[in-house]
Amino acid sequence: MDLIFQFLRIMVFCFAGELCYNFLPLPIPASVYGLLLLLAALKLGWVKLEQVRTAALFLIGIFPLLFVPAAAGVMDLWAELHAMLLPALIALVPVTFLVMATAGRVTQRFAKAEPELEEELANDDAQ
């Protein structure tokens, strides 16, 4: 039952992100709004990490599975995409590494700011 409430808490922030997307004139995806709102709530202490941790870890665990429908869609459009493959790879490879490096730096900065988070990240890596 606790897992259901954890998912519900996450979904509330997803819904709030949808509202922000519909009412704010910025070109930011609703999911990003939702994640930023959840991050703010966690940092401000309105939501405790324990209140969403199990559901979040579950979602992270199945995350690769969520890309399967998108990959199937790419296969359907292979003929059209084949002509753009080289330019797309030239653009995607460096951008992918840039995003990975940025995400790593942000995570390190948060971990250094909060020693207990650094300890949790180390424990998660050990598992």
Along the chain, the helix and strand elements come as HHHHHHH
Global structural class: mainly alpha
Largest sheet: none
Number of domains: 2
- The beta-strand count equals 0
Mean of pLDDT? 88
How would the global form be characterised? globular
Distance between the termini: 25 Å
Radius of gyration: 18 Å
Which keywords apply here?
single chain, 127 residues, mainly alpha, 2 domains, 0% strand, globular
In short:
It is built from seven helices and no strands. The protein is an all-alpha fold.
Could you characterize the architecture of this molecule?
With 127 residues, this protein is mostly helical. It folds into 2 domains: 1-66, no CATH class; 84-127. The chain is 80% helix and 0% strand. The protein has 7 helices and no strands. The two termini are 25 Å apart. The model has no long low-confidence stretch (mean pLDDT 88).
Task: Give the topology, please.
Blueprint: H1 2-23, H2 30-44, H3 53-62, H4 68-76, H5 78-82, H6 85-113, H7 115-126
Helix pairs in contact: 1-2, 1-3, 6-7
